[in-house]
Amino acid sequence: MNNSFSKIVAVAAVSGLVLTAGCGGGGQAELEDTPEAEAYLFRQAVMRVVANKMLTISGMARGEIPVDEAVFTKAANDVATMAGMATEGFMPQGIPNGSRAEPAIWEDWSDFEERAQNFRDAAQAVAEAAESGGFDAAQSLVRPLQDTCGGCHSTYRAPEE
């Protein structure tokens, strides 16, 4: 699939999720109309798309889902695209009600950015391997990608209550 088209589809998906989340759906507490709340809704949408695509990639890598080269490659490309948007949802600084973001994000922004860059690099590596060598070339790169997610979440996201 054309990379520009993939980015357009990803942006459209995020926009749709942001609009849906902003309409009070999903049982989420009402958010104030602030730039911080908009950033929160954006990052939630990005992370939902990433989580959905990672379920596909991870499931195939672990053998829990039958491998479909085209689906795997598309999901890997989508994660790489979304990874490039991850930090955008943390500006401006702010933690609205319902957010699990920790203040440490902004207290050590350089570490947070470094972790986000590691996520982008790992996602890009999976996408490039899938494009050039298919599932077999990318499979071993999925676990390092998952580790970048967990490393950031364990440091910068509060546990679920």
Description of the molecule:
There is one protein chain. With 161 residues, the protein is mainly α. The protein has a single domain (3-23, 34-156), classed as Cytochrome c/b562 (Four Helix Bundle (Hemerythrin (Met), subunit A), Up-down Bundle). It has helices at residues 3-22, 35-61, 69-83, 104-107, 109-156. α1 (3-22) crosses α3 and α2 packs across α5 (109-156). The protein starts with a helix and ends in a 5-residue tail after the last helix. Residues 14-27 have low confidence and may be disordered.
Keywords:
mainly alpha, 0% strand
CATH class: Mainly Alpha
CATH topology: Four Helix Bundle (Hemerythrin (Met), subunit A)
What is the strand tally? 0
Percent of residues in helices: over 70%
For the record, the CATH architecture stands as: Up-down Bundle
Major sheet summary line: none
Q: How big a fraction of the residues is strand? A: under 5%
CATH superfamily: Cytochrome c/b562
Radius of gyration: 16 Å
